[in-house]
Design goal:
The protein is an alpha+beta fold. The protein contains seven helices and 16 strands. Strands 1-2-3-14-6-16-5-4 form an eight-stranded mixed beta sheet, with helices on one face. The protein has a three-stranded antiparallel beta sheet with strand order 13-7-15.
Length: 304
């Protein structure tokens, strides 16, 4: 005798407020109109490989203008097969401004580069979405990262377009965060291994800072989300529970693949990114292989 099963009740799952089902609106930047460089996009709205450039050679104003245009549009520029040393890397970064000296990271080239050396003895720990140095009064304008030694596979860096992330927020969330200010601090990242005396000493020079939750890019005028898991501590003038929930929602906006690109490193790869518009995440999936990088960070402006 055949029996008929009772129909299973359809359960509707409430959509998460930080997700939009279906197409996500992202920037679609152009590669047209460049005379001195060629661009090959990694995605429609973030990341492009640049060819026709030797970073070790002198650059004309016209070339630099095109590179700056590409940086503003694509936010992440990838240069392959670059045979340059730290002084050449620093010289290239200086076209965009003064080079930062970092107080917490092992440095070289007269303290103008930061070295990240990972392997058997030191595992990677940059696998959190973050904006470089948002704990400064003037966070980095951008960074130039050079691959010295890369694992045979893994160790990619992901970037998220925080202007597109902002644009895709529901209108009610945009209204809620307009005008909010957050506190940023280095201590929960760099202070973890410090004793109290060392932390107190650094605190004198590097107090907490306050930045808008939504900053306006000084060159493009686009609004971008400017909170990150590494350095943002709290929303000012908001109940801590409510503020933490809001920050958690905003942090999740970087998780969307639609606003991301992924850079696979090769020997001789150099990547420059606009720190005012992106967050990044270094995948720590290559242990116990070695990954050695050197970064130059460029002094930025006060977010508004």
């Amino acid at each position: 005798m055949t029996t008929t099963a009772e129909p299973t009740e359809f359960v509707h799952h409430t959509r998460r407020p930080d997700r939009v089902q279906g197409p996500v609106d992202v920037s679609h930047e152009s590669t047209e109109g460049y005379e001195h460089v060629s661009l090959a996009p990694l995605t429609p709205g973030i990341g492009a490989e640049v060819s026709g450039i030797d970073l070790g050679e002198a650059m004309s104003d016209a070339v630099l203008a095109e590179l700056n245009r590409a940086l503003l549009d694509w936010k992440v520029l990838v240069f392959r097969d670059q045979d340059i040393d730290a002084p050449a890397q620093i010289a290239f970064a200086r076209h965009w401004g003064e080079v930062e000296r970092h107080p917490f990271i092992r440095s070289g080239a007269e303290a103008q580069t930061q070295r990240f050396e990972k392997g058997v003895d030191t595992r990677g720990f940059e696998n959190e979405w973050h904006t470089d140095n948002s704990w400064r009064e003037k966070p980095s304008l951008g960074s130039v990262l050079r691959a010295i030694e890369v694992p045979p596979v893994g160790g990619d860096t992901l970037f998220a377009n925080m202007a597109d992330a902002y644009d895709n927020l529901p209108d009610e969330v945009k209204e809620r965060i307009a005008g909010l200010v957050a506190e940023h601090d280095w201590i929960q990242a760099f202070g973890v291994a410090m004793d109290d005396e060392t932390k107190a000493s650094f605190r004198e020079d590097y107090p907490t800072v306050h930045h808008p939750v939504v900053r306006t890019h000084p060159e493009t005028g686009r609004k971008t989300l400017f909170v990150n898991t590494n350095f943002t501590r709290r929303v000012l003038d908001m109940d801590p529970t409510e503020g933490n929930a809001l920050l958690h929602l905003l942090y999740q906006q970087a998780d969307r693949p639609e606003v991301q690109c992924r850079v696979r490193w090769q020997p001789g790869t150099v990547v420059m990114w606009d720190n005012r518009a992106v967050q990044h995440y270094a995948a720590s999936d290559y242990y116990p292989a070695r990954r050695v990088m050197e970064r130059v960070a460029i002094v930025g402006d006060t977010p508004v």
